[in-house]
User: Fold this.
Amino acid sequence: SQKIEQNSEALNIQEGKTATLTCNYTNYSPAYLQWYRQDPGRGPVFLLLIRENEKEKRKERLKVTFDTTLKQSLFHITASQPADSATYLCALAQDSGNTPLVFGKGTRLSVIA
Amino acid sequence: DSGVTQTPKHLITATGQRVTLRCSPRSGDLSVYWYQQSLDQGLQFLIQYYNGEERAKGNILERFSAQQFPDLHSELNLSSLELGDSALYFCASSVTAGTSYNEQFFGPGTRLTVL
Assistant:
């Protein structure tokens, strides 16, 4: 069966450290993968997108990698801050273009000052 | 602010009832998606419309239906409501420009509570 899994429900790290979140998938061949941030009671907010032929993408303190052999994406937040505390969702799309996203259940990140 | 609006923010109703959730996409976005988010299931895709036509269907129950109107706003109708339908319902929109990898912009959601 098809599955998309984020490694842990919750992750606690110290301020200033790098947070690494994992997203694994099985029985999908995604055209691209996206990461979203969701704060309690609010809609997800897009952060980064990486295509199947890209290995790594960066945006400010964020970095995402995509390994289609391992069927895994890693999401890194460097120099983490308490304001980064939120739930982070990975989502994949099986086709290019405007197709529905399949979401993982998310990892709740808490950055402790 | 994503530019996607949803009404109402909260809805409390009883089992067996019918409700309508409304979504206005960002200006210029032709695609609208509906998602359901519950604590145990995470964010689940329900249905997508593109320029008034149904484009894709996910795990949408037969008791649920949706449509997209000529002005591109969309409505999600939920009928014969059950306790298990209590959830956050999100609408998202995205730009359509041929082959693209556009992100989706989510609205603030409607929290539905069925008592």
